[in-house]
Specification:
This protein has a single domain, classed as Spore Coat Polysaccharide Biosynthesis Protein SpsA, Chain A. Strands 1, 4, 5, 6, 7, 8, 9, 10 and 11 form a nine-stranded mixed sheet that branches. A two-stranded antiparallel ribbon has the order 2-3. The chain is an alpha/beta fold.
């Protein structure tokens, strides 16, 4: 199983500007992500960025970088530009890791690539984890997934799905989670390169626009997305100052013990 990892890294994050360059321990965040990806079985790891400062940092630590356009509407569009520039064939597998996942386990990267490699009728693959807390089910920042009998995604939503008719009422939400197939989406994707080239030419789907979830464009077009339970649940990425503080504490704590 050969695959390429692409790490989209934007400078202009709304909540944390310059996020990939923020330091965690002695290294910038993007270096942590890159080094985690290098520990996977990927044949190549490339950072995709629209910012010269990020490109300089990646070159400085010996990483491979691809400068991309600065007007991409999504990370998927940025990954597609890299796949095009690398002249990947349509059936080659590309794994998209977010540039704000400094603790992404290499085993998870391998898992999503091999999942796509084993599901020939699917053009995308991703991972999930079971939801165990009722607060997560009702948190719009925790994306939920409903699966079908073949282990493929039926729908992704910020809403609590599936909705338990007997358990949930809008006037009084349950204190604890009832039994049900409730899954949280883990934001790592595998694609066949040919799908990426089609994806960027499709119009934004109505469901994608409504939910602000770019994977819904693929479902809208009838693409099959293979889904599996993550072998290791990745720690949360860095979206806020609070997230950054937690990751710094974890990295600095583990390096002092090492």
């Amino acid at each position: 199983m050969t695959f390429t990892v692409v790490i989209p890294a934007r400078y202009a994050s709304t909540r944390l500007p310059g996020k990939p360059l923020l330091r965690i321990g002695e290294k910038p965040m993007i270096q942590h992500v890159y080094q985690q990806a290098l520990q996977s079985q990927a044949t190549r790891v490339v950072v995709a960025t629209d910012h010269q400062g990020i490109a300089d940092i990646v070159n400085g630590f010996g990483g491979e970088v691809c400068l991309t356009a600065d007007n991409h509407p999504s990370g998927t569009d940025r990954v597609e530009e890299v796949a095009r520039k690398l002249a990947l064939t349509d059936d080659e597998v590309v794994v998209n890791i977010q540039g704000d996942e400094p603790l992404i386990p290499p085993v998870v990267i391998n898992q999503v690539a091999s999942l796509l490699g084993s599901q020939l009728e699917c053009e995308m693959a991703t991972l999930v984890d079971q939801i165990t807390e009722v607060d997560d089910l009702f948190n719009p920042n925790v994306v939920k997934v409903v699966l079908n009998a073949h282990g493929e995604a039926s729908y992704f939503s910020r809403a609590p799905i599936p909705w338990g008719r007997e358990h949930f009422s809008l006037s009084e939400l349950p204190k604890k989670l009832p039994v049900g197939p409730f899954y949280r989406h883990i934001g790592i994707y595998g694609y066949r390169a040919g799908l990426l080239h089609r994806y960027v030419n499709w119009p934004v789907a109505p469901t994608e626009q409504l939910e602000c979830l770019e994977q819904l464009r693929a479902l809208w077009q009838g693409i099959k997305i293979a889904v599996a339970q993550a072998e290791v649940v990745p720690p949360p990425g860095v979206d806020t100052e609070e997230d950054l503080a937690k990751v710094r504490q974890w990295v600095e704590g583990s390096s002092s013990h090492g």
